[in-house]
Write a structure and sequence with these properties.
Number of strands: 11
Order of helices and strands: HEHEEEHEHEHEHEHEHEHHEHH
Mean pLDDT: 97
CATH superfamily of the largest domain: Aspartate/ornithine carbamoyltransferase
CATH class of the largest domain: Alpha Beta
Strand content: 5-15%
Shape: globular
Strand order of the largest sheet: 9-8-7-10-11
CATH architecture of the largest domain: 3-Layer(aba) Sandwich
Bound molecules: phosphoric acid mono(formamide)ester
Helix content: 25-40%
Radius of gyration: 20 Å
Number of domains: 2
Low-confidence stretches: none
């Protein structure tokens, strides 16, 4: 059994975001994921990472990410080692060190690099002190010091593997997204969710040449640099990238709608006027937008677009039960499944060896 073409092609590289990749490279990941999906469903063994260890450090809870990475590395012949930051000395930036409770990320990254083959990290929200960008900085700190690949399992700016899974789900039902309206919309939740998913999904859709529309109430703007990047991708790949404040108008004629909650960033540093974190005020503000919910009527009036959400969706807030349970053009579970396939693809690419 020879190794497939994708194993080890990016040996040793980190995977922190999709935006430093090209459209061609994203399509290579999708192609590799489809090969792994076919083999998984046919029960064909894929031991391309036999004997390798993936360390999985979760500062936040997870269903999909943890289980798809852990199952994925096992299916590739390796082992996933789950690390709770409270059960090790919490890996921490230099300014937050506490004697014998924390350990410098620079040291943790170098120690784990001596034991295994990749480090995957999830950190956002309270774990990153609600300072937007701090979670991403922590993952970059791991990447700076580790001598093995570092994988971003979601920070406060990007969720690259979610976006890969989502774009695979979209491409599986519509092979060419050029000229297709792809709406990333705010939808209400009582919780405070990070910007990572809408930002990553809007950008990867722009990388595929889609007509991207980001819809949200005032105050839920994505980061300026993300919007700028979206416009650059639209120019580069022949699509468009627009922002609107009206969910219903945005949905009209859409091929795909991706409505989910994120937090109004003006209540959090570095965007808050006083530089402080205002979680309760943010929740009070977002409660004004409970009518940003996806219903069957809304989807039917829009012309029945494909419905997308990364999960977990907040039923009765972001979306009705009826949509999640009965809408025939929902990709909700395909997106969740694709986490397994795309993550296996990227692990094989960056953890594998080019040599037999
Ligand atoms: N979409 C996603 O990352 O799900 P989990 O929080 O369950 O990992």
């Amino acid at each position: 059994m020879g190794k497939p073409w994708y194993v080890g092609i990016w040996e040793g590289q980190d995977y922190l975001t999709n935006i430093n990749r090209t459209q061609e490279e994203i399509k290579m990941i999708i192609e590799a994921a489809r090969d792994l999906e076919r083999k998984f469903k046919s029960k064909i063994p894929t031991p391309y990472l036999a004997g390798q260890t993936l360390f999985m450090l979760f500062y936040n809870r997870s269903l999909r990410t943890r289980n798809s990475f852990e199952a994925g590395i096992f299916q590739l012949g390796g082992h996933g080692n789950f690390l709770s930051p409270n059960d090790v000395y919490t890996p921490t930036l230099p300014e937050d060190m506490v004697a014998y409770k924390t350990e410098a990320i620079s040291d943790v990254a170098r120690v784990l690099s001596r034991y295994g083959n990749a480090i995957a990290i999830r950190i956002y929200a309270d774990a990153a002190k609600w300072i937007i960008g701090r979670g991403h900085r922590i993952i970059e700190e791991f990447a700076k010091w580790a001598s093995i690949p570092v994988l971003n399992m979601e920070d406060d700016i990007f969720h690259p593997f979610q976006a890969l899974a989502d774009i695979k789900a979209a491409l599986d039902v519509m092979p060419n997204l050029r000229g297709k309206k792809f709406v990333v919309s705010y939808a209400y939740s009582g919780g405070l969710k990070p910007l990572a998913v809408p930002q990553s999904v809007a950008l990867i859709a722009a990388m595929m040449g889609a007509e991207v529309v980001v819809a949200h109430p005032p105050g839920f703007e994505l980061q300026d640099e993300i919007i700028q990047k979206g416009k650059e991708f639209a120019d580069q790949y022949g699509g468009s990238f627009e922002v609107t404040y009206n969910m219903k108008e945005a949905f009209e004629g859409a091929a795909f709608v991706y409505p989910k909650a994120w937090s109004p960033k003006g209540f959090f540093p570095p965007y808050s006027a006083d530089g402080k974190v205002h979680k309760e005020e943010a929740k009070e503000y977002q409660a004004k937008f409970k009518d940003w919910i996806v219903t069957m009527d809304l989807l039917e009036e829009a012309g029945k677009p494909y419905y997308m959400h990364c999960g977990p969706a907040d039923r009765g807030m972001e979306v009705t039960d009826e949509v999640l349970d009965t809408y025939e053009k929902s990709l909700y579970f395909e997106e969740a499944e694709n986490r397994l396939h795309v993550q296996k693809a990227v692990m094989a690419m960056v953890m594998g060896s080019r040599y037999d």
